User: Which sequence fits this backbone?
């Protein structure tokens, strides 16, 4: 029984590792593509489904263009395209990096427990950003990509 | 605390024996998070990725569930947190799935548009 339990968890661990490798590979390819091709001029990127269907901006509009600018070191232009994405990036990078290191290398980073109120506030910011960046008047138009 | 299987001395609040991995039944809960119980993922990273890069409202639903997972964990509702964690996962996958589906449809349309454009020249 004990041996069987160990072999099952071992297979699960190997699958998790393979999964992490594949996601990491996809992320690296994505970063290379984003570095080379500027979403403003290139047609290799899909359009935002929400923007394509409604003509309105979503909270994520401009994030690929912003990532392209960050990869080229232009943080201020990146911030102008999508400040929400730029501000969320440290959290996303830490979460993804710790997950890759844990699954591939077996080293776990300290887990930061985020209080629910912080997540609710963050959600509020996203929804507010979604509405405000669609107002076609100064200064709200600054938030449009 | 001593392990009942191998006798190794472990830290007082350890959930499993450091030596043999045997479960230590008398471990105590520390703080608001129940230690020793399996970690309950809230999928917040995936939910934010889905919201910012898939551009779909499904990501918003996943963030709502992520907030509920941490709220339930903080109040000690472990079973509720596990259930909500499952919902957060489902909405993340739904968001990624629809996003990828859109990319594939866009790719097919782009491919045939390119073919039509070439044949017109």
Assistant:
């Amino acid at each position: 029984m004990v041996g069987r339990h160990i072999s099952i968890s071992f297979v699960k661990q190997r699958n998790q590792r393979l999964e992490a490798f594949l996601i990491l590979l996809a992320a690296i390819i994505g970063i290379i593509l984003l570095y080379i091709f500027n979403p403003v001029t290139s047609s290799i990127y899909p359009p935002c489904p929400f923007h394509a269907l409604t003509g309105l901006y979503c909270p994520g509009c401009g994030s690929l263009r912003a990532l392209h600018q960050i990869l080229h070191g232009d943080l201020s232009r990146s911030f102008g395209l999508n400040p929400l994405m730029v501000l969320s990036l440290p959290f996303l990078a830490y979460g993804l990096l710790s997950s890759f290191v844990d699954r591939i290398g077996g080293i776990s980073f300290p887990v930061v427990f985020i209080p629910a109120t912080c997540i609710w506030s963050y959600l509020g910011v996203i929804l507010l950003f979604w509405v405000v960046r669609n107002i076609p008047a100064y200064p709200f138009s600054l938030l449009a990509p | 605390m001593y392990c009942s299987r191998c006798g190794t001395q472990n830290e007082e609040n350890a959930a499993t024996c450091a030596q043999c991995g045997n479960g230590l039944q008398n471990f105590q809960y520390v703080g608001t998070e129940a230690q020793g119980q399996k970690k309950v993922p809230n999928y917040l990273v995936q939910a934010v990725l889905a919201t910012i890069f898939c551009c779909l409202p499904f990501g918003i639903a996943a963030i709502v569930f992520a907030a509920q997972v941490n709220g339930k964990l903080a109040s000690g509702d472990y079973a509720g947190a596990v259930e909500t964690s499952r919902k957060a996962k489902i909405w993340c996958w739904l968001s990624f799935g629809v996003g990828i589906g859109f990319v594939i449809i866009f790719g097919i349309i782009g491919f045939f548009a390119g073919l039509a454009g070439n044949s017109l020249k």
Remarks:
- Chain A is about 65% helix and 0% strand.
